[in-house]
Amino acid sequence: MRLLDALDIEGYAATFTEDGVTDHAHRGEKVEGRAALIAGANAALPRYAGAAVRHWNDHYVIEEVDENTLNVSYCSLVTRTDKAGNVTFEPTFFIEDVLVRVDGGLQARSRTIHRDEPSPVAIAAAAAAREGAA
Amino acid sequence: MRLLDALDIEGYAATFTEDGVTDHAHRGEKVEGRAALIAGANAALPRYAGAAVRHWNDHYVIEEVDENTLNVSYCSLVTRTDKAGNVTFEPTFFIEDVLVRVDGGLQARSRTIHRDEPSPVAIAAAAAAREGAA
Amino acid sequence: MRLLDALDIEGYAATFTEDGVTDHAHRGEKVEGRAALIAGANAALPRYAGAAVRHWNDHYVIEEVDENTLNVSYCSLVTRTDKAGNVTFEPTFFIEDVLVRVDGGLQARSRTIHRDEPSPVAIAAAAAAREGAA
Questions:
Q1: Could you tell me which residue ranges the SnoaL-like domain spans (chains A, B, C) (predicted)?
Q2: What pLDDT shows up at residue B118?
């Protein structure tokens, strides 16, 4: 995240495997492989001219799948700080990574990004409460 | 927090002891025992139909009271992300947990939640400054 | 940060070396030594009468310079929570600490604070895109 937020696109891409996939599940958009990741990020660069973006992550859960594979999931709050210092917010996200060991380090084989949405459980409870009140 | 924010109420309640207490100190409201915690959370579910809630914690301080008891305190920033992706904020909080070892794991015997308020020290300093200026 | 946010000024100052420096690089302001830090913080106290401030840090990178010196950098999101519970935001920051071992503990010899700004890389990309479109 430090590399991404510093717009060090090559450095960020190097934290993925050569064929690493970023899946923006909430908008049905998949970026496959480092070259596509770098091309997409470079094309998006002008959008960051107005604000410094930061990702604030929390609540990592790390599960060992096998000795070379980890499933890591976490939440992310995303800020945009403009030239004047005003902070605005992107939606919050839930992220699922699959990390693999490569040459003694870890790289992301996939990163799946889900935008937070109101829970179906709560929506159903609210509907039931309205029905009960009617 | 992951369980609570996913509205997995039974799962969240299981992180407390059977008689675990949640004390919302800032509104003088105490929930005692897992059954009351689950009943209260279920009753509150409809309030979460409009937004996904996330707790972002930081600055944990962990103190060992004895070999089976830990005092853990931390700060919490609480976001609400609506269907359109807009993020709004609850007040910030300071939380004090008492955790106990149960069957080799940790459970909360109590969680005390304080809403952040301007400090009396700063309020007194401001009053003194006004007096000095008058 | 816990000590600073609790306005425990003496306690916070004690996390610095006697000659520790805080450099607000973004406003060209340097505070040198604990005594100046305490005096400045006390003078600023009235500004905190209206809101509880919290620093939310993330993405620590720790580099060992030698056996007694660590370079630690991280990001900080700063909230202000007023009496009514409304949360507003300071700009986000990037911080660079130099920590040294003193009597078996760590103290800050310097803390350099940079306000986040839109990246020159993104600004140049946006200018190039405008030129390309013109």
A1: 1-112
A2: 96
